[in-house]
Amino acid sequence: MNEAYEFLKKCGTYYLATVDGDQPRVRPFGTVDLYDGTITIQTGKSKDVSKQMEANPKIEICAFNGDEWIRICAKAVADDSVEAVDHMLNAYPHLRAMYAPGDGNSVVYKLTEAVATISSFTAPPKTFEW
């Protein structure tokens, strides 16, 4: 799990895929944190991405660092606790202009039941779960 976290953190931007009915939706994301023993991401409850993860928590994440790429298949479990949101916003203080712990909008999603694979064209893939 730590290797997946470090990979995403170094990439800066990753792509999050959700399902909207029968239509896949992909968008760039940038928040990633380690909290409560797992990788977490953050968004606002008012956004379509949050509504999609609430309706169907199965997500995929993909990122590329120039040499390798990671794919993470996981279940996104909401945690809107003040502690989880505060931890994320401490890692991304510029988001405090839009979000605040306990504001009723900020939500952190824990990545559970996760399978991550790091691949390249020059080495065998590495797969791990948490």
Descriptive account of the structure:
This protein is α+β, with helices and mostly antiparallel strands. It has a single domain, classed as Roll (Pnp Oxidase, Chain A), CATH 2.30.110.10. The protein is 22% helix and 46% strand. It has helices at residues 2-11, 48-55, 82-91; strands at 14-20, 23-29, 33-35, 38-44, 58-64, 69-79, 106-119, 126-129. Strands 1, 2, 3, 4, 5, 6, 7 and 8 form an 8-stranded antiparallel beta sheet that branches. A hairpin with a 2-residue loop joins strand 1 (14-20) and strand 2. The chain is globular and about 45 Å long. The protein starts with a helix and ends with a strand. The model has no long low-confidence stretch (mean pLDDT 97).
Q: How many runs of DSSP E, i.e. beta strands?
A: 8
Please state the average pLDDT score. Answer: 97
DSSP summary: helix tally: 3
According to CATH, what is the topology?
Pnp Oxidase, Chain A
Features:
Pnp Oxidase, Chain A, 130 residues, 3 helices, globular, 8 strands
Give a quick rundown of the structure.
With 130 residues, this protein is an alpha+beta fold.
What topology emerges from the helices and strands here?
Elements: H1 2-11, E1 14-20, E2 23-29, E3 33-35, E4 38-44, H2 48-55, E5 58-64, E6 69-79, H3 82-91, E7 106-119, E8 126-129
Antiparallel strand pairs: 1-2, 1-5, 3-4, 4-7, 5-6, 6-7, 7-8
